[in-house]
Amino acid sequence: MLVLAPSFDPNPTGLPLNGLAARAMGAYLGLAVGDALGATVEFMTPAEIRERHGVHRNILGGGWLRLGKGQITDDTEMSLALGHSILAKGKVEPQAVAEAFSAWMRGKPVDIGHTVRRGIARYRQTGETAVPANAYDAGNGACMRCLPVALCTLGAGPDEVAAANRAQSHVTHHSPLGDAGTLTVILMVQTALRGGTLADLQTLAEALVVAEPEYRYDRRRAENPGGYLPETLSAVFQALFAHDGFETAMIDVVNRGGDADTTGAILGMIAGALWGLHAIPAHWLHALDPKVVRQCTEQAEGLIGLSPHRRGLQGHCVSLGDSSMPG
């Protein structure tokens, strides 16, 4: 049971915390919690984490970015920027997405990946909303921010979901390998939101491995994962499928070190959708910036409200006529 101090409101929208609303809020707040928890140990090895923290299990801030306690990084910030653009346009519109990312970068974020910076700079110079295809663009920067797409396309057809994935991803990252991994995370979130099981999510991960063997995660334990998306998802999948609850899976993945804010964010969005808001430890929610909590919960409901699942419609959450879409 989630018990919070009277001053903390994890549900400023006033919605009943059950069913789809709780799972959507759990996904967004799970992302933010994973980001904030993992940021403390980002770029540390598992041995360094053990030496300094034992088992890292509290949101402390600090880390190489010298964050304040509960501060988020680019994983959550870019998700919120993407979500804001979708809510403003009522769909995933590549120009609006690119403008939102550009405005976010103009605000001098605490952290920004090289591929993300390069893609936004290219948009500013050319006005083009899709970077050229590049096999080396399979970094995790598009996947870490994909949750708003998962929410607003819930119930849409597979082609529309895939198109929305490409529309947001290709602003900065454009590779078939990266698209496949990010789409799988979106589908895992959507399956969990609809009441799917951990076994259902593992079926999706196995389908990804069949299509793209680079995503195999059944080898040695994935530790110190870098920004290459197959490395990131190997750590996420191993931790997710080894546990039966949000907290233990999250502690597992961030203590693997490496790009821990992003592994934490991606695991958090999937696990939050799977187990719901009530599964996230109250002390982690308390530690987050209340403004971030409010933004995440409000966007979760707003984006779900746009979805075909909620509206009973098709084809209303992506612009299909943009250059970022294949012909």
**Could you give a short account of the major beta sheet?**
none
Helical residue percent?
Answer: 55-70%
Mean pLDDT: 91
User: Tally the helices: what do you get?
Assistant: 15
How many domains? 1
Protein structure class: mainly alpha
What distance lies between the first and last C-alpha atoms, to the nearest angstrom?
49 Å
- What does the overall shape look like? globular
Q: What would CATH call the homologous superfamily?
A: ADP-ribosylation/Crystallin J1
Number of strands: 0
Percent of residues in β-strands: under 5%
Gyration radius over CA: 18 Å
CATH topology description: ADP-ribosylglycohydrolase fold
Order of helices and strands: HHHHHHHHHHHHHHH
CATH class: Mainly Alpha
Q: Which architecture per CATH?
A: Orthogonal Bundle
| Uncertain residue ranges | 1-8, 12-16, 320-327
What this model shows, in words?
The protein is mostly helical. The protein has one domain: Orthogonal Bundle (ADP-ribosylglycohydrolase fold), CATH 1.10.4080.10. The protein contains 15 helices and no strands. The protein has helices at 19-39, 46-53, 74-89, 94-106, 114-126, 147-152, 158-169, 176-193, 198-211, 229-241, 246-254, 260-275, 282-287, 290-306, 308-311. Residues 1-8, 12-16 and 320-327 have low confidence and may be disordered.
